Every structure is written in C-alpha cells, then in structure tokens.
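Weekly puzzle thread! Below is a chain. First person to post its structure in token form gets bragging rights.
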Amino acid sequence: MTAPAVSISEQDADALGGDDSILMRQRRDHARLDAMMNRCLSEDLPPGELEALWLDVVQLVFRHAFAEETVLWPLLRRVSPDGEELTRQVEEEHQAINDLVARLERSPDDPRRAEWIQEAFALIRQDIRDEEDELLPRLRTAFDDRKLRRIGAAWEAVRATAPTRPHPGVPRRPPGNALRGVPLSAYDRLRDPGRTAPDRRRAPWR
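Winning reply:
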C-alpha cells in the first residue's frame, strides 16, 4: 500500500476534526490497545491482573472492529476508488485476529498459547498501522470536520452494543454482520467475567 496522505498518528486533534471526530476516537482506541498490549507483556503483573487485562484487550478489539466494519468501511468503499481493496485487506486482518482469539478460547491449556497471543498482538499492531496510515487518511480527505464528528457519534453508538467476543462465522460486512452479530452481543456480555471476578489462578499465556 502507498499512503495517500499523512498518517493520522502524526496529526493533532484540530487537523483531524476535533476530539469527537471519528479519527480521534479511532486514535484513542488504538493508543489504549497499544498500552494494554505492552502491559500484558510486562513481567510485573500478578496472574489475576493479566487475565483481566487480556479480557479487556479482547473486548475492546472486537467492539472496535465491529463498529469499523459496520460504519466506516462501507463509507470508505463509497468515497475512495481503492476502498474495496483497502477494506478487504483490513477485513482479512480482522478475520485472522478473530480466528486466533477463538482458538485461544477453545484451547486454554495448549502449550502454543503464548505463541498465539504474540501472533494476535502482531496482527492487531499491523491492523492499527494499516488503518492509521492508509484507510483513515482517506476519510479525512473525503469529509469535513462536522461530518467526521457525525461519523464518530454513529461509530460510538454501534461500538456500545457490539459483540465483545470472537464469532468466526459472522460476516465481516453489513447487513450480515449486524443481523448475526448484534444478537450475540448480549450473550457475550453475560460471558464477560472481567466485570465480576476473573480467574486469578492462571494468566492466559504464562
């Protein structure tokens, strides 16, 4: 890929449409994910905190990606000549992350668990770079500040009700993703133990 404009990681809030624009909302989520992944890989956290932090990473990744696929990428396909190619590549990255996390959930005691975690983190970091350097600058080019803030509000609303766990069989594009994914979000939240009492006996990759 060749970047069409300056990466959103190199621009300030004013240049990106303000704090409530979709570009700033995306960048804040990406920064939070990066910080959480770095903390997951540190050596000074007790197992219970690592488990809870891993669940937080998983929940944020899937809420964030679902909202992108529902709100952002259909817009990008409409306004960018190469939007189809760009969004297909990112959707493939999302699917690979989905499949890896699903494998981790199915195999809590597999000796390859640490390797799969590292692979998932590498895919997430690549996805962030592709979005900030390639896809999101095209939205900045296509829309004014007011529109970017409206898109940000729509994205936030979808993210609030999105699935929080991997569902490899759910389509990556609307309307199939919403028809099959949104009903699963309530079930996901019933399964999310991080808001109650995480298993403090074992970290997910150690």
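Puzzle host: Confirmed. Bonus trivia for everyone else. Residues 195-206 have pLDDT under 50 and may be disordered.
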